[in-house]
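Handover notes (outgoing to incoming on-call)

Open items:
1. PPK2 family polyphosphate kinase: sequence verified, structure written out, both below. Nothing else pending on this one.
2. Nothing else urgent.
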Amino acid sequence: MINGVGVGGSWGWAVWGWVLGDDRDVADVSGLLRVGSGVDLGAIDPAGTPGLPDRKGVRRDPKGWARAELVTLGQELARQQEMLFANAKVNPADQRRVLLVLQAMDCGGKDGTVKKVAGTMNPEGLRITAFGPPTAEERQHDFLWRIRRALPLPGYLGIFNRSHYEDVLVVRVRRLAPPRVWKPRYEKINSFERELVDSGFSLVKMMLHISYEEQRRRLLERLRDPTKYWKYNPDDVDNRAYWPAYQQAYQDVIQRCGTDHAPWHVVPADRKWYRDWAVAHLILDALKRLDLSYPPADFDPRVETKRLEREETGSTAKVNGR
Ligand code: AMP
Ligand code: MG
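PPK2 family polyphosphate kinase structure tokens:
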């Protein structure tokens, strides 16, 4: 039996979907990872795998399965991203674009996520920006100044590796500014993001959530491998002393800036294969919500084909001067 006919009903389709290896039984990953004002970060397991299908084939080798899925998800991401780019190119009135905001503790896997997930897409349509401590010039402006300058143009997928949220995270925890400076920023961020969404942005905000112990393992890994020394920063070890304060600051960010128009997601990130798979789903969901299609031709493809077919025989030789 080829298509499950005879098995009948939805069970038949479930079997067929499983045989095909498609992801029809994959839960709504974005929905599962979305968090809001009631979030309790301490209750979210950094080694969890929400949404991972509970099937024998997946349970046997979840990592192998997720890595293989990422290839398929990557192809769909690339297709969606191309449609986003194409629409903006043919229609300057189309202001749609997607902005991924990646936040995490040190060693949380932001760089690895950019490499793995963004690596599946066309670099021409990507705008990736990493934010470090503000430069002297940036410090002369409002904290959103450098953020605005890095926003993706219509048709682009922007990725922020750290973001305006550092201005209520590191700035608060390491006391780089007094509370009267950072406290009003939550509201400023909410209205800024409202403005972005109203002008065509889809925001995908996510915290890659790792455990204290996993951070230690990753720091040690960097010290064991001379090709990873460049990623090691002795400051990161000092920062570990502020772990609880950072967790509290993250929780406040999510509670105060997890809005309907720009919700936060917490991605369990101790397992890199789960992290990449989940992040790919989050971006794909945002793109799919745009209901994109390839723009139609503003010419008649049949007429254009005929013009080329009608070319005199021998015209190629003429052009080549023969
Ligand atoms: P990395 O992401 O490992 O390259 O590190 C970048 C560093 O820049 C981190 O230590 C951040 O805390 C720091 N950083 C990013 N944004 C800000 C900011 N607005 N103010 C102060 N430090 C920042
Ligand atoms: Mg670092």
